[in-house]
Design brief:
CATH topology: Glutaredoxin
Helix content: 40-55%
Number of domains: 1
CATH superfamily: Glutaredoxin
Number of strands: 6
CATH architecture: 3-Layer(aba) Sandwich
Strand content: 15-25%
CATH class: Alpha Beta
Order of helices and strands: HEHEHEHEHEEHH
Largest sheet: 6 strands, mixed
Structural class: alpha/beta
Shape: globular
Number of helices: 7
Oligomer: single chain
Length: 167
Amino acid sequence: MMRVLLLTIFFVLVGLNSNAQIRSWKITDLEKYIQTTDSPLVVNFWATYCVPCKEEIPYFEKISGKFAKNKVKLLLVSLDVKKDYPEKIMEYLRKEKIRAEVVWLDETDADYFIPRIDSSWTGALPATLLSSKGIAKPLFFDRQLKPEELEKAIQKILHPDESNHKK
């Protein structure tokens, strides 16, 4: 009985520990994840202080879920400042009931990490990268996407040959 109680306390504490849910990554970790993930991938760059970012996250989750049968993965990459990691980020995720995988990018030199994501990125938030093994170059948007734009972009990475023929 004592063992069950201790295990229950352990899992409750782990569940409350925000570090257990938000990992800290360097840009090299993110690059490796993007390069080695076999599933179609939607990587959304956001921050808790960015209103357009917070507006699009709920429909990113919903639309990504719609493509679950296609194994589309959603990764939310927080660009919040170090003092907000992990408490403020976790507070927002809990309040909004965000279930997507979230990492915090532990980088301070935007001139270093931004061009490694996409050379056209101005640094604007939100920004979204869509990648898949079947496409030569990831799709990149450095603005808020409307739900229908996100769906169309996911379709492009799922069916790259079809989207090339529709031009």
